[in-house]
Write a structure and sequence with these properties.
This protein has one domain. By secondary structure, it is α+β, with helices and mostly antiparallel strands. It has helices spanning 36-41, 89-98, and strands at 3-11, 17-22, 24-26, 29-31, 45-48, 58-67, 70-79. The radius of gyration is 20 Å and the shape is elongated.
């Protein structure tokens, strides 16, 4: 399983974020580091995380934008359609408590 440092990333050609690998590979060598300059030299920018909004009747998907030599997490708002059922944390907990045998 590949590990990533989610504090640094770059926006790929597909518009999605590519987080920095751990270890960071420079010139064929592995570097286990948190030194910002090493990431910047390899084109990885600091990632600024933002809090996911919460609003009844809406859900949010995360996307990333480069701004001022940083990458910011942003949130796109989507309205739930009336047909979409919203499951609460309590309903999930209740379903887990019933266990697999409770499923028909």
């Amino acid at each position: 399983m590949k590990n990533f440092n989610r504090d640094y990333g770059k926006i790929g050609e597909n518009g999605k974020i590519e987080f920095a690998p751990v270890p960071l590979v420079i010139g064929g060598e592995n570097f286990w580091t948190n030194i910002p300059e090493k990431y910047l030299e390899q084109g990885y920018l600091p990632v600024v995380k933002t809090e996911k909004p919460e609003k009844e009747g809406f859900y949010y998907t995360e996307f990333f934008e480069k701004e001022n030599e940083k990458i910011f997490a942003r949130w796109e708002e989507h309205e739930l359609s009336p047909e979409e059922e919203v499951v609460t944390k309590e309903q999930i907990s209740e379903a887990i408590a019933k266990g697999v045998n409770g499923i028909d």
